[in-house]
Protein 1
Amino acid sequence: MHQAISSVPLRRLLGGIAMGLTAIAIIYSPWGKQSGAHINPSTTLTFLRLGKIKRWDAIFYISAQFIGSAAAVMVLGALIPGVLSHPSVHYVVTAPGTQGIAVAFGAEVFISFILMTVVLNVSNNSKLSSYTGVFVGFLVATYITLEAPVSGMSMNPARTFGSALAAHFWTALWLYFTAPPLGMLAAAELYMRRNGRAALKCCKYHHNNSKRCIFCGANGGFNA
C-alpha cells in the first residue's frame, strides 16, 4: 500500500481509519464492554480523579495497559522480524514533529483535552452514551490524519512506552507521560465545575450492555 499510494496525507488517512475502527472494535467488544476499554493510563487517571474508579483498580488497570502495550510490540517484532524494526517503521515510535517539543507538548495537551471533553459529555448523555465508542474512534482517526505530524499522536503514555522500549528510543518520553494526563485531567476539572460531580455516571466507555459493571455495580444499564 505504501508503494501504491504516494500521497502521505492519504496514507495517514487510511492509517487513521484503521486505528479508529480498531478503537471502536475494542470498545464494543465483549472484553471492552466488561472492562470499560480504557486502554490508556491517562483515561484511568482521569476517572480516578473523578472518583469513578478505586485506587487499587486504577493501579492494576495502568499496569495492564503498560504491559499490554510492551507485549504487543515485542510479539509483533518476533512475528514479523525486520518489518517492525525497519527504519521506515521504527516500531511506530512517537516523536515530536519538526515544529519542536513545545509545539508537540501543546498539541498533545489539546487533543487529549478534546477527547476527554467529548467522552465525558457523550458518555453521560442518556441519548448519546451508547455512541461514545464511535465518537472516540472518529477522533482517533481525525487526530492521526491531521495531528500526527505535529506530535506523533500519542495521547497514550502506555502506547508510547511500548514502542520506545522495543526501539530503545527515549526522545522526549517525558512529554508523552505528562501532556496527555494534563489534558484529560483539565477536561475533567472543567466538566465537574460546569456540571457537578453528580452528573458523572460511570467510567466505562460502553455501559449499557449485559455485562455487570465492576465500578458502579449496575447490570445492563444505569437504571438496572
Protein 2
Amino acid sequence: MGSCHTKAVVDWLVNGARPASDTPGVLDELCDRLLGCGIPIGRVGLFVLTLHPHVMGQRFLWKSGSPTDVNGAPFEAFQTEEFQKSPVRRVIDTGVPVRRRLADKDCPIDLTMLPQLRKQGVTDYLAVPLIFADGAAHAATFATSDPRGFTDEQVGGLASIAAPLSRVVENRMLQRTACALLDTYVGNKGGERILAGQIKRGHVDVMNAVIWFSDMRGFTSLSNRLAPQAMVDLLNRYFDCQVPSILDRGGEVLEYMGDGLLAVFLIAPDGDNARKICRSALEAAREARDAIARLSARLKAHGELRDAEEHGAHGVQFGLALHLGQVSYGNIGSRNRLKFTCVGPAMNLAARIEGLTSPLHRAILASDEFARQCPSEFVPVGEFDLKGFAAARAVFGLEEETALFQVGAPPHR
C-alpha cells in the first residue's frame, strides 16, 4: 500500500485538513488516516522553526496510542551538537529526505537519535522536508517498529503528503505565530481583541480597572554610568521581577516606557470583584517589590553596579502607584500606526502618585479609591496637589513601609 492509497490523505490535506483547527489536531487526524491506509507508523513528528522571542522551534510528536505532545525548543537548542547532527537538522539544512532502515545490520548509525530509536525497537525511519512558501525548510519524521519496516511504496506515499502537509502546517503556524507575537507585543487581552477584529482607529471600550504604574528610580543616573548593553540587560531583569507577578494574578501589561511599566487588572462590569482584584494587584506589587530588592542586592554583591554607585546611584530602586478607576481601552494613534492601550484621567492620576514614591521614600503608594478596597493594609500619608488635578488628592502607603516614611519631603496637608 502506498501513494495510491494515500491519495485520499493528500486530498484531505489539500482541502484544508478540516475540521482540525490547530497543528496538534492536524497531526492526530493525519496519523489516524495513515494507519487507515495500512502504513504501520508508530511515531510521527513535526519540527517547525518559529518566529517567537523565546522559542526557536516547536516539536509536535505523535506516538501510537497517545495524543500529540507539543514542546518548544529554546534558541540555544539549535546550536547544540546533538541537534546539529540530528536527522531533523540535516533535512532542514539540505532540504533532502533522510531514510535509515535501522533493522538492517549494515545501516549507518551516523546521526543522533538513531541509536536511541534502534534501542526502542524502531526498524525504519524517514525524515522529509516540509518547504513553506518562503522557501524555509522544516521537517516531518515517520518511524515504525514493524519488523518489515516501510515498503518503498509506503515511503513514496509518505513523501507524497509532504507538500500539502507543508501548506496546512504553515497556515496553522502562521495563525499561532500571529497570536504569539500579539501576546508578546500588545498583551494577551489586547491580542485577543485585535484578532477578533477590533482594529478600527478610535474603537475603545470604557471599563473599570486597577492601574499599575511603576518605574525605576534613579534610572537616568544608572543609564549614564552603565554601558548600553548592560543597561538593557538590567532593564530586562528589572521587568522580569514584575511581569510574572502581574500575569500570574490576572493583570495585563500594556506597555513599557523606558524604565516605566503600565499594567491593568480589569474589573467586572458590575464591580463585584473589585476588592478581590485589588488584593491580587497588591499581592503582585509586594512580590515585585521584594524581587527587585533581591535583584539589587545580588547586583551589589557581584559588583555589577559599582561604577554607577560611585557616581551617586543607589542600586535598583522601585516606585509603584496603584489606582482604581475608569479607563478607555482601545485603538489610539495615527492612521498608519496604532497602539492598543488605555487612556484617561485615571491613568494620569496613577502616574502623578507614582511620582511621589521617591520623595516619600516608599516603594508602593495607592490612591484613596484603591486603598478603600484594602483598608487594613494602608495608612494615609497626606493630601497632595498633583499637576493636572484641581483638588488635592489623598495618598496612602502600606503600613509595613511606614518606618521608611519621612515627613516634609513634598508639600502636603
Protein 3
Amino acid sequence: MQSKTWKLSIKAKEKNDAMNHNTIHKNLKRSFWMFIAPCATLFTIFFLVPLALNFFFSLTNYDGWKTMEFIGLQNYVNILSDPQFYAALRRTMTYAVLNLPFRIAIPLLFAMLLTSPKIKYRTIIRTLIYLPVLLSSLVVGITINWMFSQTHGLINFIIEALGGTGLEWGANPILAMIVVSIASNWAAAGFFMIIYIGAINNISEDIYEAASVDGVNGFQRFFKITFPLLAPTTFLVILLSTVNLLREFALVQGITQGGPGTSTTFIVQYIFNTGFTQHRYGYASAAATIVMFIFAFIAFVQFKISNGGDN
C-alpha cells in the first residue's frame, strides 16, 4: 500500500514538474517576443517596408508625382548600359579602397598612443579626437569646406602666410577628393579609436610581461602580439569603414556637392540626383537595388576572407 502511494506521489510530482516546465517555457517565449517586438516593428517599418517599396518602384517609371506605369526590368537594363552609373560606382570603389587603410591606421595609432601611460591628459585628448563623431556629417563637411576655401580658408591663409600660393581646393578634382578624404577620416577617427582602445585594454598584461622576459622590443611587441590579437577588432573596423565609405553622401554634399564636375559624385550622389533632381524615382530605385546587392556581396567577401574576423 505504501509502495503504491509512493508511486502515485512520484507520478504527481513528475506531472507537476512537467506543468511547471511548460509554464516556464511559455513565459520565456512570451518574454522573448515582448523584448523583440519593438525592434522587429521598427525594423519592419524603417527597413523591410521601404525595401519592398523600393523594389516595387524599380519596376515602374515612377516620377515622384503622377506617372507610375509598370515597365518590368527595363530600368535595370538601362542602368546596366549607363556609363554614368559605372563611372560613379568606379569613383566610389576607388575612394573606398584609397581611404580604407587610413581608417585603420589613424585610429589604431591614436589608440596605441592614448593607452600608453607615458602620455599625459589622455582623457582630454580622447575627448577632443572623439568630438567630430558627435557632429553631423553635414556640419563636418561645412567646417572642412570653410577650412579649405580658396579665398577665405584657413589652410590657404597658412600657406600664403608661409610665402606660398593658395591652392584651388574646390576647382581641382584631385584636390577636391583629398579634401573629402581628409574630412571623412577626421570625422571617423574618434569612433574607431574608442573601439581599438577597448580592445587594447582587454589584452592581458601577462602576455606583455612574458614577452618582455623573452627580450621582445617595442616593434616586435606591436606586430607579433598586439596587432594579431586585435584581428577581430580590425575586421569590425574594416567592415564598418567599408560600408561607411561606400555610402558616403552628407559629407560630400557639405563640401563639394559632387563637384567639380562629377569628380566627387559617388554612387549615392548619383542615385540622389537621378531620383530627386531628375525625378526618375523608378530608375533611381533600380540603381539603389543593384548597389545594395553589390555592397552586400562586398561584405560577404570580407566575411569569407577573414572568416568573420577570426583570421
Protein 4
Amino acid sequence: MELEKGIMEVALSDIQKAREKIKNTIRRTEVVRSSLLSDEFKADIWLKLENTQHTGSFKLRGAFNKISTLTESEKARGVVASSAGNHAQGVAFSAKQAGVKCTIVMPENAPLIKVESTRAHGAQVVLHGEIYDEAFDKAKEIEREQGSIFVHPYQDPLIIAGQGTMGLELFEDIPQLATVIVPIGGGGLISGIAVALKSLNPKIRIIGVQSEQVDTMYRMFRGEKVQSSTRVPTIADGIAVKRASPIMFESFIKKYVDEIVTVNDDEIAEAIVNLLERQKTVAEGAGAAALAALLARKAHPQGPTAIVIGGGNIDLNIIEKVIERGLVRKGRLVEMSVIVDDLPGNLAKLTQILAANRANILEVHHDRVSMGLDLRQTKIDFVLETTNREHVERIRNAFRQAGARLSIVGADASHI
C-alpha cells in the first residue's frame, strides 16, 4: 500500500492481511436475513449488524489495524484522532490495548454517550468546534505541536483495509451476494468493502448512502460542483463530513462504487424505528442510513442484498425524539387540532368519534384564546396513537362529517 501523487491503493491482499492482524480482537458480526424485509422487497435482504461490534461500530476494524502496525518509536509518540464519536472509540480502545497514549478531538456537540465511552477507554478528550471538520483541524494542530501519530478516520490505506474486512465476511456469509448498501461519510468503509467485494466478484453492485443534509460525496459522484457544506444538524452525525475528499473519490469511489443516493432525517428516523420494532436491534442515525435508502425506495435491491448497519451508539437523550419522528412519518403518531363550538358535550362527541375509529388518545389540550377563534369557539389539540396513514385519513373524514374544522400535523400537514 502506498500514497503516491494523491492516489491511494488498497489491494485484496492488504485486506486479507488486515483480517489476520485483527481477527483475535474484532468480532465477526452476525449477518441476519430479515424475512420481513425480504418479503416486502421480493429479494433476500440481509442485515450486517456491525452495531454489535466491540465499541458499537465498524470503526474499530480500521483503527485496530492501523495502531497494531505502529513501531515502538511511533507508539512512544502517542496517537491523536478526530471523530464525531465512533472512530474516537475505536482509536481509544485500540490505543489502550497497545498501551499507547491517546488524544481524541470531538465536536462540542458530539453525542454524550460517545464522549463518555471514549473517555472510558482511557483517552484524553478535547471538545472543539461544531462539526467534524473543525475537530479535524484541531487534531492536526495537536499532531504538529506534540509530534503525535495522527490516525485518520478514513483517508489511510491501513484504515481502509481494516474496514474492508467486513467485505470478506459478507462475501463468505451471504450466498450469491449481488448488492451491498453502505453508508458514506468520508468514504473509508465503502472503499474497503468495495475493494474486497469487487476483487472477489466484479458483478456485485455497491450502493452508497449519504445524508441529504451533508451530501458532498454524492455531488462529487454526480460530477457537480462541490462546496463545503455549512453546519446542518442531522441525526446522522457519524456521516456528516463537510468536505468530500478528492483523494478518496479518485482512488476508490469513482472506481468501485456503482451508485450513491441520499436520505433525509425523517427517512433515517423511520429506519431506526423499523430496526427497533421489527428487527429488534438498535442503530444510530448513520448506522441506519443504508436501511433508510432501502425503505424509501431510493436504493433498489437486485438479488441477495446486504444492508450495512454501521453503528449502534445512539444517544438516549435524542432516541425518544427520533422514535417520535419515525412514528409520525409512518402515520403511527399524529397531532390533530379540531375547532368546534365551545359547548358542553362537544369534547365527548369528539372522543366518541376517536373511540369508534380505534384511535388512542395520548394528550388533550384546550385552547380558547388563539387568534382566529371566535368568542364561542375552542380549539382542542389531540395527540393520537394511530396505526398508519390510512387510519389517520379515516379519522380526518369522520371529523369532517361531524362538521368539525381541523388541521393535522405530522402524518398529514394539510389544513381543511
